[in-house]
Design brief:
With about 80 residues, the protein is mainly alpha-helical. The chain has 3 helices and no strands. About 35% of the residues lie in helices and about 0% in strands. It has a domain at about 40-75. It is flat, with a radius of gyration of 20 Å.
Length: about 80
Amino acid sequence: MHTRNFDNYKFTRFSWVPEIDVHLIDAQDQPPQGGGEPAIICIGGCIANAIFDAKGAPVCRMPMTPERVLEAMILV
């Protein structure tokens, strides 16, 4: 960390990122696969944090059903 707070924090800019070569491969013998998995990985944590922020209930298991949120709220 080079900064102590977000007042002067420098967010990453596209000009700082090295050039990325993308190669698409036609694999007709395999089913289609996605390319958006890295962004999906954090969704569970984001939803859990939103529930905690809204209700103060730490839900740590997936799927985050209404029943599990209610149970977490009762345990708090």
